[in-house]
Amino acid sequence: MGTTTPPRTLAEALRARGDESLAGLLRARPDLLSPVPNDITQLATRAGTRASVVRALEHLDRFALQTAEALAVAPDPAPYDTLLALLTGDGQDDGDGRDDAGAAITAALPGALATLREQALVWGEDTRLHLVRTARELLAPSPQHPSPTGLGPTVAEATAGMSPGRLQEILTAAGLPATHDPVSAVTALAGLFTDRTRMAELLDTAPVEALSVLDRLVWGPPYGEVTPNPTPPVQWLRDRGLLLPVSTRTVVLPREAALHLRAGRAHRVPEPVPPPVVSAAERDPQAVDRAAAGQGFMALSTVEELLKLWNNGGPAILRAGGLSVRELKRAAGALDVSEPVAAFWIELAYAAGLLASDGETDERYAPTPASDEWRDLPAQDRWTHLATAWLAATRTAGLIGGQDAKGRALSALGPDLDRSAAPEVRHRVLALFASLPPGTAPDPQTLLARLRWERPLRTTGTSGPAAQGDVSDLRSRIALWTVNDAEMIGITGRGALSSQARALLDRGPDDAAALLAPLIPEPLDHVLLQADLTAVAPGPLERPLAEMLSVLADVESKGGATVYRFTPGSVRRALDAGQAATDLHAFLATHSRTPVPQPLSYLIDDVARRHGHLRIGAASAYVRCDDEAVLNEILADKRSAALRLRRLAPTVLATQADPGSLLEGLREMGYAPAAESAEGDVLITRAGARRTPPRTPPTPVPEGPPVPDATLLGAAVRAVRAGDTAARAVHKDAPDTAAAGSLPRTTPAETLATVQAAAMTGSAVWIGYVNADGAASQRVIAPVKVEGGFVTAYDHTADEVRTYPLHRITGVAELADEQTP
Questions:
Q1: For the chain, what is the radius of gyration of the CA atoms?
Q2: Residue from 185, 226, 235 nearest 206 by CA
């Protein structure tokens, strides 16, 4: 096949790639597509910008990053063998006591290098590997930003600007022949540090304290502070160039000397193999599925209870947005959970589009119309809706209660809770769960270790050992929250991934719902009434029964069975909602598997007999009663003093208080008044439903540009190729024709003649074109027809047939024969 010329630049390396390889680069780094580059040169330039390189480095796994870090401290360009030696060492004992991982590194290095090449962070053949300049600058050592490898500058870099006399002193102390050439002196000193035999002989003469100083610097940071009068061991090292001055008080261990002390390794602990996720417990897969289904059903019940709690209009929205601490505590008390857990359920309902702001002047949170549709779905479909919303949400409930960058408290449903990395972390954590056998619960710490290996720069910003055990970073915290949240939602059960969750991740909501349906208990149409004025629901209740019972009784305890308690207040609540005593007796008799206890029947009759005996209307407010003795009793009660009642007639009392306050006041005194309208009719207070206008769920905040699909990638690659062809087209010399790569300039007559000739011969030409928006571009076209002031041609740049107005063509030039597409 003949020899090929090695690429001299990143652009040439990209130009030599195939279309699939270019598509792989754009898929791995979608930020390069915004907008689509005009040609390969622009693509290479954009791939070398700081922001793009930082983003690419953040998506490398630990070993690929360690490979890039090794290249950053290697000569540029570096042969493959030099890179391998920096990762495996030279085989000499460095006293570190580490088992040799050379075989694993040798096996993993080609893959890591392929990843770096695919992402255009490394280019060139194996004999001349180049790390892109921006990545080298980001990873190279400096006093302000020490290298992740812990290595300092080279001898040449550290001695730049050093006087020749000082260099001579160092050579003499190190036992090297004197030279007056600074370059030769630096080369000789570097040669000493890279010669294992001579370096070992030099260190054999070092004081023990000097070796201790080197031990503290060898794995970084390589910089140390010295006093104006250094100790003898430090002075010994300075005299022989093992510590070189950076400033008057700072010295550095040169890279060549550190590599000798490290046995040639750039990293103390190379990690070519990802750490395994270890099992914490083995459980019965069926028990896991049942436990997860139970948790999922509890999740549905909790969200439904939250929607019911805010059914008549929820809490007001803070001026800065979100829910106040007081309202969060109130919701937590009503749901019988802790505040962080309540915040999670509130955020989940919001992410699922079930809660939103009503948009009124007095803005409040309320259920959305979609919440009614959600409640009518089968339980398994409601669960998949919640789980899918949680997987995609970027709002992160675990941040609530913390502070933002400006020290302001983060509130539930407030701003600044979006973290674009959350969906990717959740999916990755669950994928690691799924990689284990069914029923296996992973150890959370091994999950964190694996995530740190996969994205080291997205955790602590370093690939060194300091990242181990640090869970303060956001990515690790999201992972831990994911483990806890997945258990609450019912994605996991007893710490292991359920079958329905595996189906949700792999095949979609329909398959997950089909697996979950048999595990969810059927709703019951009955309760068990007891003589202590309680009712026991031995399982989930049908919707009408549960709604009616929640009005007639108060929930006393939850769990596998829900206990309801009947009180005078709860019975009055049902009567206020328009129920009659006969209706309540019939309801209980119909839905109880046990006889209606006599105390409960007496309670209903007693409250019903007194209910509405007093009537309250607007005066501001008044009380009327046919029984004059009852009104006398109210006036004589000291507790009514705050209501400031006065008699208007034997059967009517009036007050300046509003009707609502009067109702509550008399109820607290033990009466059962009823509100009435201006016409004298009893007002029925049903559990109303306040809904927001139709709302869409909050849109997740994407993490960078979206990954393009195959169609867009193919079109982008064709456009870049065609633009590159136009930019590099070699045209025949012609008068007034600009240099290759710039817009050609010809007169209208010359343009018409050239495109007509090309249409007759079927050849391609190079044109400059300005569209209606004034944007100029270069194109390679093959004219097919020229008439009416337009040229119809196959545009190699757009890969399609187009028609161009001749007056918008700035000029035309013929292509050299070897450049014709």
A1: 39
A2: 235
Per-residue confidence (pLDDT) for residue 1, from 0 to 100: 37
Identify whether the C-beta of residue 233 lies closer than 8 Å to the C-beta of residue 207: yes
Q: Report d(CA 581, CA 568) in Å as an integer.
A: 13
The HSE-up count of residue 19 (CA atoms within 13 Å, CB side) is: 11
> Is-contact 603 533, C-beta < 8 A?
yes
| Strand, helix or coil for residue 701 | coil
Distance CA 426, CA 431 (A): 8
Q: How confident is the model at residue 816 (pLDDT cuts 50, 70, 90)?
A: low
Cβ-in-10-Å burial (0-12, 13-18, 19+) of 390 comes to: buried
Mean pLDDT calculated for residue range 312-318? 86
Q: Residue 596 contacts by C-beta under 8 Å, 6 or more apart in sequence? A: 529, 585, 588, 589
Q: How far is CA 645 from its chain centroid? A: 61
In our burial notation (b when 16+ CB lie closer than 10 A, e otherwise), range 743-779 reads bbbbeeebbbebbeebbeeebbbbbbbeeeeeeebbb
Q: How much of the chain, in percent, has pLDDT values that exceed 70?
A: 90
Average of pLDDT values for 215-235? 87
Helix (H, G, I), strand (E, B) or coil at 752: helix
Contact, 86 vs 93, CB < 8 A? no
Question: At 804, phi and psi to the nearest 5?
Answer: -120, 135
Of 502, 501, 475, 476, the residue nearest 488 (C-alpha): 501
How far apart are alpha carbons 234 and 253 in whole angstroms?
Answer: 11
Strand stretches in 544-626, DSSP E: 554-557, 562-565, 615-617, 621-624
298 within 8 A of 562, measured Cβ to Cβ = no
Stated as kind and residue range, the H or E segment containing 805 is: strand 800-805
Answer yes or no: are the C-beta atoms of 32 and 47 closer than 8 Å. yes
> What pTM value is reported for the model?
0.75
Report pLDDT for 819.
Answer: 47
pLDDT in tens, 395-416: 999 999 888 878 888 999 998 8
d(Cα 367, Cα 693) in Å, to the nearest integer?
A: 9
- Identify the residue whose tokens are 């919701």: 331
CA 743-749-751 angle, to 5 degrees, is 35
